[in-house]
Amino acid sequence: MVKPLLKLKRTIKRLLKIKEDIDPVAVRRPAKLVIKYLMALAAVAMIALLYPPSDLFGPLDV
């Protein structure tokens, strides 16, 4: 589960490094935020794929 996340992080860093050549100061801060948000999104997607919704939201059914 960790390996795909690391691969995604490396790919994003590589893409952002290309943009960094243009204006390094303007890209650096948003780049870290983009990586954090995409990592969180990937983690949520992996959890959603691993566990069916009935297991996650079953206790909430009243």
What does this structure look like?
The protein has one domain (2-51). The protein has helices at residues 2-20, 24-50, 53-57. With 62 residues, it is mostly helical. The model has no long low-confidence stretch (mean pLDDT 74). Helix 1 (2-20) runs antiparallel to helix 2 (24-50). It starts with a helix and ends in a 5-residue tail after the last helix.
Structural class: mainly alpha
Tell me the number of structural domains: 1
Mean pLDDT: 74
Q: In oligomeric terms, what are we looking at?
A: single chain
Low-pLDDT windows of residues: none
- The helix fraction, in percent, is over 70%
Task: Please provide the count of β strands.
Answer: 0
Instruction: State which percent range the strand residues make up.
Output: under 5%
The first-to-last residue Cα distance is 33 Å
How many helices in DSSP terms? 3
Task: Please tell me what the overall shape is.
Answer: elongated
Largest sheet geometry: none
- Listing every helix as H and every strand as E from the N terminus to the C terminus, the arrangement reads HHH
Radius of gyration: 16 Å
Short summary:
This protein has 62 residues and is an all-alpha fold. 82% of the residues lie in helices and 0% in strands.
